[in-house]
Amino acid sequence: MKYIVTLLTLLTSFFSLSHAADTEKVIKSKISKVTVFMQGAQVTRKGSTYIPKGTSTIVIEGVSPYINQQSIKASGKGKFTILDVQYRYIYPEPVEQNTKAISAIDKKIKRVQDSINTHSYYLANVRAKKKAIDTERGLLLNHPLMRGKAKPDSLDLLKGTMAFIENKLIDLANRYLKISLKEAEMMKKSTEMNQRIYELRLFKSNLPQPPPNQPKHQVLVAVTATAATSGSVEVSYKVNQAGWSPWYDITAKDAGDDIELVYKAAVYQNTGEDWSNVRLRISNANPNRSNIKPTLPRWYIDYFRHRKAEVKKATRYFKEKDVRTTSDINMAESLDEVADKALPTAGMAYDYSQKMQNFSSIEFDIDLPYYIKSDEKTHFVTVQKHNLKASFKHYLVPKLDKDAFVVARIIDWENLDLLVGNANIYFGNTFVGRTVIDPSIVSDTLEVSMGRYRSLAVKRTKLKSNTKKQIIGSHKLYTATYKIELRNNSGNEIDLVLEDQIPLARRAEIEVEVTKLDGGTVNEHTGLTTWDINLAPYKKKVITFTYTVKYPKEEKITGL
């Protein structure tokens, strides 16, 4: 007897556990934070629930359909134990159509359509009567008496005949008028009934329709508890349909001042779930890239004639996502000057950003809530602001362009953790163009193009009087002289680098010699000629340079 009682107790416990294991509870959850990588994002959802005694499954719905199943991780707070976490998608039960309303509208449409069909027969009958009157009128008008071909026996007979035809035509005209009025009334009614059909069908098409059945994407968290309790569950997972690219705002108040660099993240996402009121973390990590150290294969050498096969090179290709660009940022009008003085300066998003360095990446925690819909639109998240020491150089290449270009030479930039990205350039509050920041160079100074400088006038002229061709012995000599005139039209001193070039010879028998350079320097390998010029406000400067080309007189030179 004791054995039977023990067996029944075990069976009861087993069925109780089996029932509890089958217990699923869907809980409400919301996204609490998102870490956005260069490619992809890690989403964290959190929800609270009641957990029964024993084993049960907590179901978290609304997750992205593009979830990476291997990345799902669960944690929680409460007196329970997490056993397992899985991903699942199910199709919901079909939603019943609004059949009652649709059926009522269909009945109305059928009644009106039946009326239209019956009405069309009466309308056809009216039109047939009109046609009969037209035929009768035609017979009368084509009578021989009306055409003067008949010979009446007497004048009284003719008069009687004409009176009969006249009365008959008047009667036909009256009948035709009545039928035409009736036809018009019937056509109006037909139009009204057709309009009614159209409105009923339009109303039917606008009835609320249940959404099409889409699979529900869920994360299942299996838990067990020794007693009923309450707690919270947090799940995180990675999605690929998101990312960010670096974008910068570079502002210089004056060519002699330091520059302000605002570091922004152009964030996009199309994950199928909106990020509503979410704290963001911007990371320059790329979890899609391999983290396995590459291994070099064996490298064999041998005599060429004895080689049997080539050694294949192992190469991996990792595709990097292109920098996304966006449309120009609209500049908002400033407040009234009086109101500006009365209002405090608005805060900026970078005031709420905190930079964190770990062993493999840089992350920025944004302590502000953001709302980013799943629509692939770009949202700019400001992460940092830096005031940087910079010197400004003006570069001028008059052979190619009449405008000078301002280049900011930035020092102490290595610890900013910048990435290659587009940049908007502002002088004061004026947008002047765009450039590209490329920190991949190995240099202590980062050069950033700041746009064109139009307060410097330049004129490059080839002096014909000093340009000549000569024959000396077995050689020809070609001499060319160029004059470059500069004028500083601004009230500021300009630190200028002027660039031109000297031709290079492809053959040893062609000799190029620089005979005048006015203080410039020539790179013998590239032919690039440069002058470092300091030009005072409203001052002029003239640079001339001359070169001679010597070559065999029987040859012709191209490229001069």
Q: Care to describe what's here?
A:
This protein is α+β, with helices and mostly antiparallel strands and 560 residues long. 21% of the residues lie in helices and 42% in strands. Among the domains are: 99-205; 456-552, Immunoglobulin-like (Sandwich). It has four helices and 26 strands. The strands form four sheets. Strands 2, 3, 5, 8, 9, 10, 11, 12, 13, 16 and 17 form an eleven-stranded mixed β-sheet that branches. Mean pLDDT is 80; it is low at 1-21 and 306-340.
- Uncertain residue segments: 1-21, 306-340
Radius of gyration, whole Å: 45 Å
Identify the overall geometry: flat
What separation lies between the terminal Cα atoms? 116 Å
Helix fraction? 10-25%
- Helix and strand succession? HEEEEEEHHEEEEHEEEEEEEEEEEEEEEE
Major sheet description:
11 strands, mixed
Rounded mean pLDDT score: 80
Structural class: alpha+beta
**Total of helices:** 4
Q: What's the number of extended β-strand segments?
A: 26
Strand residues, percent: 35-45%
SSE blueprint and pairings:
Layout: H1 2-21, E1 24-27, E2 30-36, E3 39-51, E4 54-61, E5 67-77, E6 81-90, H2 99-141, H3 155-205, E7 216-225, E8 229-252, E9 259-269, E10 275-283, H4 337-342, E11 353-357, E12 362-372, E13 379-388, E14 390-396, E15 404-410, E16 421-427, E17 430-437, E18 446-453, E19 456-462, E20 468-472, E21 475-488, E22 494-501, E23 511-516, E24 521-522, E25 528-535, E26 540-552
Parallel strand pairs: 1-4, 2-10, 8-16, 14-22
Antiparallel strand pairs: 2-3, 3-8, 4-7, 5-8, 6-7, 8-9, 9-13, 10-12, 11-12, 14-15, 15-18, 16-17, 19-21, 20-21, 21-26, 22-25, 23-26, 24-25
Helix pairs in contact: 2-3
